[in-house]
């Protein structure tokens, strides 16, 4: 039976209760998004139960609302969580079950059906499955299991279109809610002093910033090659924050291009936002995204940005290029041209910050509440 830590809530009557199933082995952008959502829902008076499987470690524990009921399912493999989740649903009878990550969707849907509790299941998808799901078995699950959820929530219109086209899911089953990005914590962290010597106020050259896992999907080679072209025409420096399996390849590329003095790969930063706010330009070079959290974070902090027009998310974040140039994926020349133009003629930071209001934690949480039937009733609102 799951090991529960209950915050004074019995399995009996309760106004609104949401279970969130998170099978996670690492902390990243998706985990931070879920923590942001949990925090805002808790502020709204919803009791949130966070069901943990696999590594069973609470993501960003110092940021998670203390009223969150953390439930350790006691499992290590994703499918072994099916019976514990079904038993949880039978005992606590939450008003809804929201699944995070692809693996959680399969477990959540099957568990709800086994429990026979009629618990509404909502599948949240934070990546572009049309780009990332390639194995036959995973395609089968998406195509035949996901439609059995009450609704599927994707983080961009592009991801939604790909889901419907690739997996033949009915459009009326799919809803789009952007990720909850901006909150007071983000702005507080952004105001801290940036921990990098290149970002001093009397810097000798503008700093371009890239943030993300050092992996193929982020296509940092294109960014580095484009930066070399910028550097040939004007002083500039490039910071790429993150870790990953492509580190050695990127370090070799930087040396091959003779950029050792102007490109730095400082690794993972627990607070990238102070650097993001002080950077002169943020560049996203991804081959694909589910949404592009870091791009939304950058413009929310008033930092100018350029991005590839990759599937899916950046075009929506930058409003078709209104808030920053969009360039073809893998196009070194176009990326270099866009970066140089924005460095020379940056947009008004306040217009960027206003554009970021679309991704506020408060607004996004309300959209989730509405779709999941967790909005306060008129009687509760009057109280």
From TrEMBL:
A GO molecular function assigned to this protein is: glycosyltransferase activity
Whether Transferase counts among this entry's keywords is yes
UniProt KW keywords: Transferase
| UniProt-listed SUPFAM superfamilies | UDP-Glycosyltransferase/glycogen phosphorylase (SSF53756)
Glycosyltransferase subfamily 4-like N-terminal domain location: 27-181
Every copy of the Glycosyl transferase family domain together lies at 203-356
Cited Pfam families: Glyco_transf_4, Glycos_transf_1
Biological process GO annotation list? carbohydrate derivative metabolic process
Q: Which InterPro entries match?
A: Glyco_trans_1, Glyco_trans_4-like_N
Recorded protein name is: Glycosyltransferase involved in cell wall bisynthesis
Which taxonomic lineage is given here? Answer: Bacteria, Pseudomonadati, Pseudomonadota, Gammaproteobacteria, Thiohalorhabdales
